Amino acid sequence: MERKEKAPRERENKNRKTQTEGKRKTGQVRSGAKRVSSGQAALCPVYKKCGGCHLLELPYPVQLQQKQRQVEKLLKPYCRTEKILGMEDPFHYRNKVHAVFGHRKDGTIISGTYQEKTHFIVPVEECFIEDPKADAIIRDIRGLLKSFRIKTYNEDTGYGLFRHALVRTGYHSGQVMVVLVLGSPILPSKNHFVKALRELHPEITTIILNVNDQKTSMILGEREIVLYGKGYIEDTLCGLTFRISSKSFYQVNPVQTERLYGKAIELAGLTGRERVIDAYCGIGTIGLIASRSAGEVIGVELNPDAVRDAVFNARRNEIKNARIFRGDAGEFMTQMAAQGERADVVFMDPPRSGSDEAFLSSVVMLGPAKIVYVSCNPETLARDLGYLTKHGYAARTAVPVDMFAQTKSVECVVCLHRKEREK
Ligand code: SAH
């Protein structure tokens, strides 16, 4: 029995694997004798067990309607909601694919996802929402484990070696990162294993060995050894190039991310003079893209790997008006407010749990003319809007963006204005 919970960000995005038996043709999916129009769940053999694509059985326009209504209902007390920005092709969009490895009683190696709300592994071959290239790499890793006689890890006994594989793809760059998560730093026949994997998939640009020797619900451990390539991939977004490390957050839907960030920056209405804060900045995406139309950008982020990426990304794109700080966004903002600092625009893009009162109260104290709130959870967004609208801000527009087609999740961007400025 293999058990494990999702790492927080995996859980947050609620995008898990499903399995399909046949290849999807244009507008249609196919499985054995059955043929149904796209947006139906009949073809995914693990649809019920996986629990990633809750909406797979609904036609895509109905999914969008449902998400639109959900956001409208939650945000009704605060602002009007514009029409949701849906995807043109709502399949195979995920640029990050995770697979947990285990074995059956007879020793057969399996890889897939955890059954919803349990710790059982649901075997997955391919998935409607994942990058098919990543799924192919994961299938081949399974084959290599067999030929190299590498045992998969058993979480109950702590016996075995191979725990997870994580594949990240650069949508524009085509670069591919493979992270092999092992219970110990020793991968037998390491060089041969890497060579064999690269021969099967010459598109792989970096391979990382991540050591996770803890009984933990996190997928990745602290320690990493780069086995091949640079140890990160790069991709372009809104005209800038970003370095992405294995442990840094990066949006999973590259096409919709450009639309989301484009909208966020449009709503900020920058003129080139503003002092902008990018809170929860990750690898610096929103802030660095905004820096082209702002006076100065200050980014703050907790994860040290993401901070390193963000600093690198500023330099990589020759951006001179951005500074990145490591720290808790709430503490950082409280300190800024206490020091009498000011800001014109605050972009905030917190995790699924939303922001906290320390952060929100310090934003109110800093008093930016605009707050652009990017959220992957409309419920915590509504809660935080409740706070901000009681403390001098008015929300005008909410724009839902479908970043997670086939799943229940929906992303939103909301622009708030300081009330005095409106007079
Ligand atoms: N804006 C970025 C990242 C958004 S995800 C992007 O769009 O790519 C949220 C980010 O908040 C993650 O990078 C996470 O590491 C960071 N984070 C979580 N809690 C935080 C906190 N208390 N203070 C600062 N950053 C935090």
TrEMBL record:
One GO process term, biological-process aspect: rRNA base methylation
Compositional bias (Basic and acidic residues): 1-24
Listed EC numbers: 2.1.1.190
Active site: 376 (nucleophile), 376
Keywords, sorted A to Z: Methyltransferase, S-adenosyl-L-methionine, Transferase
Residues that coordinate or bind S-adenosyl-L-methionine: 251, 280, 301, 349
The keyword Methyltransferase belongs to this UniProt entry's keyword annotation: yes
Keyword Transferase set for record: yes
Top-rank lineage group of the source organism: Bacteria
Pfam families reported in the protein's UniProt record: tRNA_U5-meth_tr
Annotated segments matching region Disordered: 1-34
GO function terms (MF aspect): rRNA (uridine-C5-)-methyltransferase activity
Similarity-based family: Belongs to the class I-like SAM-binding methyltransferase superfamily. RNA M5U methyltransferase family.
Protein name as catalogued: 23S rRNA (Uracil(1939)-C(5))-methyltransferase RlmD
Taxonomic path: Bacteria, Bacillati, Bacillota, Clostridia, Lachnospirales
